[in-house]
Write a structure and sequence with these properties.
single chain; Porin; eight-stranded antiparallel barrel; 1 helix; globular
């Protein structure tokens, strides 16, 4: 992928999604002050595309895709992607995976030809006449793009197929994106003091875990017309970036963890502001959200969701932040409306000096971060019809060290092979690992979250899992390659919930980021 120095219509992964084995490194930004290490800089981009899709039963929908891509060299980029239905009556059709892209410069530095391949897994909504099969989705694309400064746009052709299902179509696609720099340290810099002139990694300031409950409003119903009543419990996570103190935008993902609609999930973009109340640590404000959601037999129509409400935030003296927010959510094209209350615990990822002063230099300790493409094999999933099935999934995993032993982890994925297409999961947790010995490392982790769909019996959606693992860490390129194998168990937490043994194989890329 040839990328001009100033205008990068380069790309691609956004989710949070990020993965695979990205190899070569960029050049250091500037000489580091004595006693500090400095990051390397490479090109990256956030890209969106819109692709109409004809279904085999004659229905029409469209997929909205988002990808975050980091350059491996001037020609190639890799990164995580998410696709979701955003038109018609297929709200809840989600897939998550990885995109690889090759670019060629044409005529001038402003024009590029791009060839990409997305591989992911998911589902969520379908019928006997339009089904996703085991859940694997492939999307090759060929497109022509032009740069307009850091922005770029283009047109192309894309083929969407679910190989084990009957959904496949070739259509035009529209692409828009924005290029920027990706700063990262070497994994071997972990534990050293670092210094950077911009945010490192994905450039977010906070990561938060959330739990909430909502009451369905009158008129909410399932896709089969049955009214939705009672309460829905949700669990999720979000990433937030502050543009100034008390001003932010971010991304969030959450899913059903109780309430009889297991398999429901949503991905939203957020923007908000708050102001100090009797001081700067206690803050009150408001937040607006928009995105896509569905699954779990909830009628969200085309999938679009809108949400708004007040927020309350307490910045503790110890670093973490406690948040509470109330909101009203509606699906404009469907029959889903609710009043929500949510509590969140957020942890800082970067030095907040960048939000207070855009040109400030950031300092902190380098901690290892790793992105993985993972293939979990569920030995025996229990289905709601009483049968059992072995299922192999495809997903993304993101780890970030707290210190040399403890780390946090977030995982998301879906069934790709087997009879449980549309089964999806999202988990967060903590793990511990040994020091590296002859290129190998051992570890253990525990996670909790939500799952559902594909006819899998998860008793409301809340799940927990544990795993022990062994990892080989490559010396080349620059100690970034990771190959990990693990064994463990996933357990449904609802009354009478069952579990299944899980084995996984993951391919990852590691780098260092600054921690305040």
């Amino acid at each position: 992928m040839h990328i001009p120095r100033r205008s990068l219509p380069h790309v691609l992964v956004p989710s949070l999604l990020s993965l695979a084995a990205c190899a070569a490194m960029g050049a250091p930004a500037d000489p580091a002050p004595q006693g500090h290490v400095f990051p390397e800089r490479r090109e990256a981009a956030l890209e969106f595309n819109w692709t109409p899709l004809g279904m085999p039963n004659g229905d029409r929908t469209a997929l909205l895709g988002g990808t975050y891509m980091v350059a491996v060299n001037p020609d190639w980029g890799f990164g995580p992607s998410v696709y979701a239905a955003a038109q018609g009556d297929y709200g809840g059709l989600f897939t998550v995976g990885v995109t690889a892209q090759r670019r060629w410069r044409l005529l001038s530095s402003q024009w590029h030809l791009a060839a990409g391949l997305y591989a992911g897994a998911g589902g969520g909504v379908g019928s006997k006449n339009a089904n996703t099969g085991g859940g694997l989705m492939l999307r090759p694309e060929l497109s022509l793009r032009r740069a307009f400064g850091p922005m770029y746009a283009g047109l192309g052709v894309a083929h969407v197929t679910f190989p084990s299902g009957n959904i496949r179509d070739t259509q035009w696609t529209v692409v828009v994106g924005r290029s920027h720099s990706f700063l990262s340290f070497l994994p071997t810099d972990a534990g050293l003091p670092g210094r950077a002139d911009d945010r490192s990694g994905l450039k977010f300031d906070e990561f938060a875990l959330s739990a909430g409950a909502e009451n369905f409003r009158h008129g909410s119903r399932r896709r089969n017309g049955v009214p939705l009543t009672g309460r829905l419990d949700k669990a999720g996570a979000d990433l937030r970036r502050y543009t100034a103190p008390g001003r932010w935008w971010g991304l969030e993902a959450s899913g059903a963890a109780g309430g009889g609609v297991d398999g429901y999930m949503e991905i939203l973009g957020n923007a908000g502001a708050d102001w100090g109340l009797f001081g700067e640590r206690l803050r009150v404000g408001a937040q607006l959200s928009a995105g896509l959601g569905g699954g779990g037999n909830v009628d969200t129509g085309s999938g679009w969701l809108l949400r708004a409400g007040p927020t309350l935030r307490w910045i503790t003296p110890w670093g973490p932040t406690l948040r509470a927010d109330a909101s009203y959510l509606t699906a404009p094209d469907g029959h889903y409306r609710s009043e929500q209350l949510r509590l969140s615990l957020s942890l800082p990822l970067e030095d907040m000096a960048r939000a207070r002063a855009p040109y400030s230099v950031l300092t902190g300790t380098v901690r290892e971060t790793a992105w993985y493409l993972t293939t979990p094999h569920f030995h025996k999933l229990h289905l709601k019809d009483g049968s059992e099935d072995s299922v192999t999934g495809l997903g993304l995993s993101f780890n970030r060290d707290f210190d040399r032993t403890w780390y946090g982890t977030a995982q998301a994925g879906s069934a790709a092979w087997g009879k449980a297409g549309a089964f999806s999961y999202g988990l967060v947790g903590v793990g511990a690992k040994t020091r590296r010995m002859n290129g190998m490392r051992l570890g253990i982790e525990g996670l909790a979250g939500a799952a559902g769909g594909g006819g899998v019996d998860v008793r409301g959606g809340a799940i927990a899992s544990g795993e022990v693992w062994a990892q080989w860490e490559g010396l080349v390129p620059k100690d970034r390659l990771r190959v990990k194998a693990g064994i463990g168990r996933m357990q449904a937490l609802g009354d009478g919930g069952r579990g299944t043994p899980v084995a996984s194989l993951s391919l990852g890329w590691a780098f260092g980021t600054l921690t305040p």
